[in-house]
Amino acid sequence: MISNFIGWIFALLVVDPLQAEIQQQAERARLPVEIVRQSQACLTSQGPKLIERAAGDYGWAAATVVNIAIGHTAPAELLDGSDPQCAALVGALKGADEGA
To answer: Which domain of life does this protein belong to (predicted)?
Structure first.
């Protein structure tokens, strides 16, 4: 029961803002439509994995929320760049961050 609550809080504080940030950065960087489509597939595959990890590792979840809140970690850093659905998105977002 606590794991479900932690997962829900993590989704609310990290996964949902991650989706919004990726959408915003994709629009700002004028990423190709294909990368935007891949970003949706990436979040569909990575979101549940992140929530599951948070539900199983409360320390990681708390540290991640705090690091994102203070700006120490960008939410996009949570995405797995080795996931084929996320590779192009992670590369594009890193390029957009370096250009900013």
So the answer is: Bacteria
